[in-house]
Amino acid sequence: VPGAGAALRPCSSRVAQDGINKPVIDRIIRVDHAGEYGANRIYAGQMAVLGRSSVGPVIQQMWNQEKNHLKRFNELMVAYRVRPTVLLPFWNVAGFVLGAGSALLGKKGAMACTVAVEESISEHYNNQIRTLIEEDPEKYKELLQVIKQFRDEEQEHHDTGLEHDAEATPAYSVLKTAIQLGCKAAIFLSERI
């Protein structure tokens, strides 16, 4: 019998844990999962308000990319055995409220929210890329590729928001600053809790 006596092992999506900096990887994957989860909720809120408007297809396209980002981080959480943040129920509500609330300001308000969030996330991803390169770019090659791709897509969302008159929102700079402070707090908490 071919392979007789050889132990069969089921396929696994887990990655080799040897030599990785587990606390760094756990923090990165946990916070990125939380961020993509929150982004999905923001776009869900925006679609609830503006889904049937002229900007609905633009929001839907960005949301579809965010759904793919979340799916990938769900897979990475399993592969690297990372627990999610305990704050997911809070981000569920807060994300939807932020999305719907910004959309209630109209198309420009929704796009201002997108610009603020995506600028924060692009900066956050850039910091993670630097961290992983300092650790070992070869060891973290797969994770670096994922984060770089998602960073580029988040930057596209940022640019889309600017192209759709985000900066014409009344009190744009105040709104943007407030949202970005919220993003920084969410990142800080989700990395740790």
From TrEMBL:
Pathway: Cofactor biosynthesis; ubiquinone biosynthesis. It comes from the Eukaryota. PANTHER family: 5-DEMETHOXYUBIQUINONE HYDROXYLASE, MITOCHONDRIAL (PTHR11237:SF4), COENZYME Q10 BIOSYNTHESIS PROTEIN 7 (PTHR11237). This is COQ7 protein. It comes from Molothrus ater. The keyword Isomerase does not apply. One of its GO terms (biological process) is regulation of gene expression. Keywords: Iron, Membrane, Metal-binding, Monooxygenase, Oxidoreductase, Ubiquinone biosynthesis. The keyword Metal-binding applies. One of its GO terms (molecular function) is metal ion binding. One of its GO terms (cellular component) is nucleus.
